[in-house]
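hey so i finally got around to running the thing on that chain from the lab meeting. sorry it took forever, my laptop kept dying and i had to restart like 3 times. anyway pasting the input first so we r on the same page abt which one it is
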Amino acid sequence: MKFNQTPIFGALIVESTPFTDERGSFFRTFCQKEFENHGIEKNFVQSSISQNKFSGTLRGMHLQLNPTSEYKLVRCIRGKAFDVIVDIRPESPSFLQNFTIKLDERNPVALLIPPGIAHGFLTLVDNTDIMYQMSSYYEPNKAHGYRWDDPVFNIMWPKKPTIISVADENWSNFII
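ok and heres what got predicted. didnt touch it at all, straight out
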């Protein structure tokens, strides 16, 4: 596995190295020892899959607040998505910066998102599934979010979303 720093402090692109032969391919999605060797000593205690039927589905911008803030390891296991993170940690050198990456079922890449980072994605094709691993258990009363189109975040979405939940549409803007 390769760990590459993004412009967002503490957020990493985790690249797996596939083994390929006539049967197909095989690659590791997680290895506790390799994460620890890169200073990431969090246990992932929960996994979830977001299934999205249609292209243009937007989910975000989400995070979990303290004391249950979490690391997330996010990858696309089917389809293709435009994935976005925004640093909302005032003490961070990358405060209010965003980072975008296209996640694709054919590319063995994951995004490691540290606590204090808002996350969202827009599906680029029908039937896109995103897998999450989280370092904290989900606490509904600590779930939070911000508007996907907040001008402070300056996210350059590749297209306008066509499907957004009422909850995601009603998040407030980030207040500086």
